[in-house]
Design a protein that fits this description.
Blueprint (H helix, E strand, L loop, with lengths): L6 E9 L2 H24 L10 E6 L3 E4 L12 H6 L3 E4 L6 E4 L3 E7 L9 H17 L14 E3 L8 E11 L2 E9 L19 E2 L2 H5 L5 H16 L2 E3 L4
Parallel strand pairs: 1-2, 1-11, 3-4, 8-10
Antiparallel strand pairs: 2-6, 3-5, 6-9, 7-8, 8-9
Helix pairs in contact: 3-5
Length: 240
């Protein structure tokens, strides 16, 4: 696949309720699949394949992946309402996680046939973009064998802590869902769940590690830079 066809439209949805973002993801996902089928059936078409990357932030919400255990949610329905936290069982992989203000959520909706058809490599590239971004702030991070996401102090189980969670869906080699990166996130919310079903490791944020508020827009720009380099994509300008 020529790099000139690896066009990705970047869109920042701002703060959006999870249900609305999920519906929007589904709509975009369906559009990418339809575009893929159309181009397959009409190889001489003048249009380019579709790829999208959505940034957003959610009001407090817990989401449980299709392989997750409801027991990892430590609040009942009334307690969720009292804390004003939404809860959804969703169609991504992985267990339970939290989304909320101060967190960067990234939803790549990519046709991997245009890049590489390797889910393992795809997940590692998402992690690598976060690892490289953290390095620009002097935070050393990496991977823990057998676990997804990005971690700090990876060689010390007692100190290791997750700073970015991943959970995706892939169908017809088109992806959706993605990563949740704790930048200025209120970590108290993670005490009301067993994050990702892992009860012996902690969760952290850039704010916690650096002791200061971080410019989220600056972090987003660094993530996009590193994703573009890793995936060799070109950013598509949105029509005005």
């Amino acid at each position: 696949m020529n790099q000139e066809l690896r066009l990705v439209e970047i869109e920042d949805l701002g703060s959006v309720r999870y249900a609305d973002a999920w519906k929007y993801q589904e709509d975009v996902f369906d559009g990418v699949v339809k575009s893929k089928i159309h181009l397959r059936n009409h190889p001489d078409a003048s249009s380019f394949p579709e790829n999208h990357f959505l940034f957003c932030e959610h009001p407090p919400v817990y989401t449980l992946g299709k392989s997750g255990k409801i027991e990892n949610l430590l609040l009942n329905e009334d307690e969720l309402k009292n804390h004003n936290i939404d809860f959804f069982k969703i169609n991504r992989g992985g267990d339970i996680t939290f989304h909320g203000p101060g967190q960067i959520v990234g939803y790549p909706i990519l046709d991997l046939d245009q890049f590489f058809t390797d889910i393992h490599k795809y997940l590692r590239f998402l992690e690598e973009a976060i690892i490289l971004t953290l390095a620009e702030y002097g935070i050393e991070s990496g991977r823990v064998e057998g676990l997804t996401g990005v971690w700090l102090d990876i060689d010390d189980k007692e100190k290791s802590r997750k700073i970015c969670a991943l959970g995706i869906k892939c169908s017809r080699w088109v992806t959706m869902h993605g990563f949740a990166f704790n930048v200025n996130t209120d970590l108290e919310y993670f005490k009301k769940i067993i994050p990702c079903g892992i009860d012996d490791r902690a969760v952290t944020s850039m704010k916690m590690e650096l002791g200061r508020e971080i410019d989220i827009d600056e972090v987003k720009s660094k993530i996009i830079k590193h994703l573009g380099e890793l995936f060799s994509w070109e950013i598509k300008d949105r029509a005005v």
